[in-house]
Write a structure and sequence with these properties.
By secondary structure, this protein is an alpha/beta fold. The chain has helices at residues 3-17, 48-60, 97-107, 134-138, 170-186, 215-225, 236-260, 277-280, 287-290, 296-302, 319-334, 352-363, 392-407, 424-427, and strands at residues 33-38, 65-71, 111-117, 120-122, 158-159, 162-164, 191-195, 265-271, 307-312, 340-345, 374-377, 432-440, 450-455, 463-466, 472-478, 481-488, 499-503, 508-510, 513-517. It has 14 helices and 19 strands.
């Protein structure tokens, strides 16, 4: 027992022996997510001194977590990951920004979530210095399946200097999963926060995506559907198929993280463009679902996303945008189900009083009586509209005003401390998962074949999944018990029960079917 704790215990027992009344047990602090997003395009983690200031500033608003951008464009503000180390002007090696944030953050009682951009490959005229960077190996100089670039219907692959990863490319997805696993395995992070886990912006309309026209993407779509044409961007079958590729990648990341660390939280930055589903005719009509093909509502429902941190970037001082903010805040709280949703306002678009109003709105119960899991401010670097583009002293002054608004006074929303909400489905799991791969005896992956998971003794329900481009499949949060795994083969026949798996609470059952099929 630490010396301070031992002294406290002795004093307590002595007081009781003298007839003192035992004090009432202190109430547990409330569970409410509170964090800053800390982007890596601005200073904040470039040196140990900056990290010290960041941690102190987070403590000042009674935050309990930091979402720190570690992988911007497949480069890393860290030394021990599959991604190459960033070329940004950080302190020289052996300085490791992620190590430093974890060490100082954890010492201060803050969780640290590594913010990783998923489908943004590169965004500069000059390439990264490492020949192993994906833009150097799988960008403009690559051909065929080795070219991981996403492409628009008109053939465009870059918007300015921005290049994007194709979520329909199997090798690109495997690299992404492995890179995220490397961070989870090498660093004591509390979670991974996914950004740009969607198709790119820059489409011609807000009702569909112009992206997804790489050679690999079109070939896989045609193989899956039997079509031979090139679909229009508005083609519903093609749109649904592209959205499935994004969901499949999230599922693979989720189980990949579970394999590396079952307790690590997977969160993501949810799109909330425009008005909410209340105004546009439902979830499927939102720009989130229709334009950038991001189904975070479905991911929460399936359980492949622990926490949606919604980028609810709206100006509180503009009536239309205030309505947008309120609509998205309502559905975030109401759609959480058994998972969690956090409202993430844009501090840089608002004055401190307007940001305070948005905090109160985010934490208020909805008409259905639900409350969002918490708040995350974007961003640490620009804590108010008045500080954008201003010297550090001005921004620090605005941050001090935000601290006062959030923490000072009896009605201040963050006057008291809170803890990050627990994840019962990970802390005390009552179900398990199944993952595997389907391939021919020569090792050829069977892409987009249907795999069925069927209970043997009546427990659970039958589920189906289609394999990804590497033949991988996964079922999450499956009731414990015995299951058959069957495969619908490409020739139209249904394979016999090719595997029997036992699903156990908190475990991933291996249903590897590699080499078991010969056509």
């Amino acid at each position: 027992m630490p010396r301070r704790a031992l002294a406290t215990a002795v004093a307590f027992l002595l007081a009781l022996s003298l007839g003192a009344t035992a004090p009432a047990a202190a109430a547990d602090p409330p569970q409410q997510w509170r964090s800053y997003w800390v982007d890596a395009f601005n200073e904040g983690v470039y040196t140990p001194a900056q990290v010290t200031k960041l941690v102190q500033d987070a403590q000042a608003i009674n935050a309990n977590a930091l979402i720190v951008q570690i992988a911007r464009r497949y480069d890393c503000f860290c030394n021990r990951a599959l991604y190459p180390r960033t070329d940004a002007a950080i302190a020289p090696a052996p300085y490791d920004p992620l190590d430093e944030v974890i060490a100082q953050g954890h010492a201060a009682g803050l969780e640290v979530h590594a913010w990783v951009n998923v489908n943004t490959m590169w965004n500069a005229a000059a390439p990264h210095s490492s020949p192993d960077h994906v833009f150097n190996k799988h960008g403009l100089s690559a051909t065929g399946a080795d070219r991981w670039l996403n492409k628009k219907a008109d053939g465009t692959e870059r918007v300015g200097n921005n290049a994007f990863m194709d979520p329909a490319n199997p090798a690109a997805n495997n690299y992404t999963v492995a890179a995220i696993q490397s961070i989870v395995r090498e660093y004591d992070v509390d979670g991974i926060n996914l950004d740009y886990v969607r198709y790119p912006d820059f489409s011609s309309t807000t009702t569909h995506s112009d992206w997804g026209y790489s050679e690999v993407s079109l070939a896989r779509f045609r193989a899956a559907t039997g079509r031979t044409d090139t679909p229009m961007p508005s083609d519903q079958q093609f749109t649904d198929w592209r959205r499935e590729q994004m969901t499949g990648l999230v599922r693979k990341i989720y189980l990949g993280m579970w394999e590396a660390d079952p307790q690590a939280r997977l969160s993501m930055d949810g799109i909330t463009y425009g008005f909410g589903p209340q105004s546009v005719g439902g979830w499927e009509k939102t720009r989130t679902y229709a334009e950038v093909l991001q189904d975070w509502k479905g991911w929460l429902s399936e359980g492949i996303m622990d926490t949606v941190v919604a980028m609810n970037y709206k100006r509180n001082w503009m009536p239309d945008q205030k309505q947008m903010y309120d609509e998205w805040t309502e559905v975030l709280a109401d759609w959480q189900g058994d998972r969690q949703a956090v409202v993430g306002p844009a501090l840089y678009l608002n004055s401190v009083p307007d940001s305070l109003a948005q905090v109160r709105s985010a934490l208020a119960p909805t008409a259905a009586g639900n409350t969002a899991a918490g708040w995350s401010g974007y961003s640490y670097a620009n804590p108010s509209m008045a500080g954008v583009g201003q010297p550090a002293a001005v921004r620090d002054g605005e941050r001090a005003k935000l601290v006062e608004a959030l923490t000072v006074g009896p009605n201040a929303p963050f006057a008291d401390e809170a803890v990050v909400p627990t994840m019962p489905w990970k802390a005390s799991p009552t179900d398990g998962h199944v993952a595997g791969r389907v391939a021919l005896r020569d090792g050829t992956a069977l892409d987009q074949v249907t795999v069925s998971l069927k209970p043997i003794l009546g427990h659970g329900v039958t589920q189906t999944r289609r394999t990804d481009g590497d033949g991988w499949f996964g079922f999450v949060h499956v009731e414990s018990g015995l299951y058959f795994v069957t495969v619908a083969l490409p020739d139209g026949t249904v394979g016999r029960s090719l595997a029997v798996v036992r699903v156990s609470n908190g475990k991933i059952a291996d249903a590897d079917l590699t080499g078991l099929i010969k056509l």
